Task: inverse folding
């Protein structure tokens, strides 16, 4: 059996220098960006109930109803400005339509 050498406070090597306890700082506020809070979700749901859907969202619904998923993605992408935002909006509207069917 090979015995590992005892660690010393040497000035060379991987674990060189004085041994200190790791300082764990508190997480920055900027790290919570994009997190959905209960209050925000409530406000968005309330606005959606009162105001309804934007015209482009209604067109998106129509495209999805006739199962033109790719065309719906292209349309959402054009209106929202990026591929990922378009995908997210398509998924959101698809989930909404499925919820309405039940």
Result:
């Amino acid at each position: 059996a090979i015995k590992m050498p005892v660690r010393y406070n040497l000035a060379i090597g991987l674990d060189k220098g004085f041994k200190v306890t790791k300082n764990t700082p508190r997480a920055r506020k900027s790290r919570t960006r994009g997190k959905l809070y209960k209050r925000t979700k409530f406000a968005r749901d309330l606005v959606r109930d009162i105001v309804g859907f934007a015209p482009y969202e209604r067109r998106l619904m129509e495209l999805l109803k006739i199962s033109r998923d790719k065309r719906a993605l292209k349309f959402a992408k054009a209106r929202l400005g990026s591929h990922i935002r378009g995908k997210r909006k398509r998924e959101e509207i698809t989930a909404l339509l499925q919820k309405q069917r039940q």
